[in-house]
Amino acid sequence: MAGDTADCAICKMASRISEQRIIERGEHWVAHATNVPGWVMIATTRHGEWSWDLTPEETGTMGAMVAMASHAIRQVCDAERVYMIGLGENALHFHFLLIPRYATDTERLLDHAVHDALGLLNEKTANASEADATAAKLRASFRS
Ligand SMILES: [Zn+2]
Question: Does domain 5-102 have CATH number 3.30.428.10?
């Protein structure tokens, strides 16, 4: 296991977070509300930084946690959509954010953060043959 609790930003945050911010605490995942209303962080309960570090039990329970938290966000926030964003830098837990996207947020979000990401995506896919070759490698790896 990489790192210890004293060095872990998520363990430190978890020790300070109030119980009323906890949306759901399962054996493998914790979902908690962040300081931004409607934004929910879901993190593993143990250290393991990346998706490839997840145990079969964690992968088997992640989908239900995401679906239930997303449903809750849509219901509570009247969100049109729920984005799922995970970068994973500077944390010892695999984690991601669920972010409500409101009908009125479309222009703001899509024209800034998401648009920037999509711009990078378009640059990367400009070379279709490279993208196709990479896709084939990913497909083969996924099925191996
Ligand atoms: Zn930790």
Answer: yes
Residue 139 CA, ligand 1 centroid: distance in Å: 32
Using the mean position of ligand 1's atoms as its centre, give its distance from the Cα of residue 58 in Å. Answer: 16
CA–centroid distance, 1 to ligand 1, in Å, is 10
Burial (CB count <10 Å: 0-12, 13-18, 19+), residue 99: buried
For 71-120, write each residue's pLDDT tens digit.
999 998 888 889 998 888 778 999 999 988 888 776 666 556 555 655 65
Q: How far is the CA of 12 from the centre of ligand 1 (A)?
A: 7
For residue range 35-71, what is the model confidence (pLDDT) as tens digits? Answer: 888 889 999 999 999 999 999 999 999 999 999 999 9
- CA-CA-CA-CA torsion for 89, 61, 74, 22, nearest 10 degrees? -70
